[in-house]
Amino acid sequence: MESSRRILEEYYNDSNESYACPSWAPTVGFAGIASAVVLANIGGAYGTAQAGKGIMAMGIRSPELLMKNIIPVVMAGVLGIYGMIVAVILNGKISPPMQGTRYATYSQFNAFCHLAAGLCCGLTALCSGIAIGIAADAGTRAVGAQSAMTESWKKMGFSGDAGGQANSGNDNLFVATILIQVFASNIGLYGLITSLILSQQDYTCEYND
After folding, report:
1. Angle at which helices 171-198 and 71-93 pack, to 10 degrees?
2. Which of 195, 204, 197 is nearest to 35 (CA)?
């Protein structure tokens, strides 16, 4: 009983309010959840739109390469999943006030950790989506242009390595564009890992009857 009274006096005042676990703490935690989902999906949407624009432009001259160059769209779409994963984890960490007593157990320490986790995931996914979109737009257009130029060289009767175009097969340029997009997508992965680490931090106000 004495232990319960000491814990009560340490965390709560007569109005069931606590400096360690204030009533506004869940608002900060939910802001972290919203940041993760919204910013990650903005990045994914931008990357998908930019990549799709480049793919469609390339498909006019080289329609046979459409499915081969769909990879950046998948990479950009995964960014939204990163945000959803972090949001689900953080949502499970936010605790409501205790029923009956209305004592808050969700601390501002947890709240700011969860806000930081959401921002880490959301902002890195946003940057990753922008990088993927720009790289994919330029890369797919370049691959399509090289393919069209190769066909032009062949129609002109060049069977050898005419300026490095006729026999290149687009593989070197295609691999280079994919590598650029992979490293761009890694930015979002770093943010996801950091967010998962931050989400494991925990400090809860305790109250025992």
Report:
1. 0
2. 195
